[in-house]
Amino acid sequence: VDNTAPVVSLDTPLDGAEGTGTMTVGGRGADGIALKSLSIEISRLGSSTPERVIPVATLGVFSRPIDLGGLPPGWYNLKAVALDRAGNAAYDSRNIVVLEAQKADTAELYFPAHGERISGRFTLDGRITATSPVGKTAITMNGKSFAVVDTTKGGWFSLPVTRDMVEDGSLTFRAEAVSAGGSPIVSEPRTIEYTRDGPWVDIAAIATG
User: Quick one: three-class SS letters along the chain?
Assistant: First the structure.
């Protein structure tokens, strides 16, 4: 008889995070035997009925952009729900704020996932959502300037990172830009565990966005 609940944790977003359009939800889910399902529920604070239920992959670390479009501005509870095949459940949640679309300038890192273990070459992918186009995005690593990349008209950016650019260890990245009004637009931190040696796969034929 399996009476042990699965394990689920949310790494992003942080409690109190603000967003519109999309928000990246990242974390991990596991079970001693096998997960049956893992999903994200978005509910108005105080409501027992989710506004949306989004299934996510159940293989360890996950990172997925969640569509906030159409949700009225206000506070929401974002809850990760893990179920195993014996019916045991586990939860982790954050309270977030959905902003009015025209007022929100946001920066998001979509890849790699927070907490992911990576080796060899990888790519930092993300998006700047702003009322006016942003031409450049600055990437910081461990609090220091790392690179500046072009941003597409749609706000997407991509930075290939090779072995000679970083050292082994824990690496924390942020994406930063400046709005047309001069206000900073800064993403939540994204931390990975990196080793130069190890297997990796690079898909060069598809561009983010």
Answer: CCCCCCEEEEEECCCCCEECCEEEEEEEEECCCCEEEEEEEEEECCCCCCCEEEECCCCEEEEEEEECCCCCCEEEEEEEEEEECCCCEEEEEEEEEECCHHHCCEEEEEECCCCCEEECCEEEEEEEECCCCCCEEEEEECCEEEEEEECCCCCEEEEEECHHHCCCEEEEEEEEEECCCCCEEECCCEEEEEECCCCCCCCCCCCCC
Q: Are 154 and 209 in contact (CB under 8 A)?
A: yes
Query: pTM of the predicted model, to two decimals?
Result: 0.56
Q: Which residues face 75 on adjacent strands?
A: 97
Q: Give burial (CB, 10 Å; 0-12/13-18/19+) of 71.
A: middle
Average pLDDT over residues 173-199: 89
Task: Please tell me the distance from the alpha carbon of residue 39 to that of residue 65, in angstroms, as a whole number.
Answer: 13
Task: Pick the closest to residue 89 from 39, 150, 138, 149 (CA basis).
Answer: 39
Q: Which two tokens stand for residue 140?
A: 């910081």
Please provide the average confidence, as pLDDT, over all residues in the chain.
87
Q: How confident is the model at residue 132 (pLDDT cuts 50, 70, 90)?
A: confident
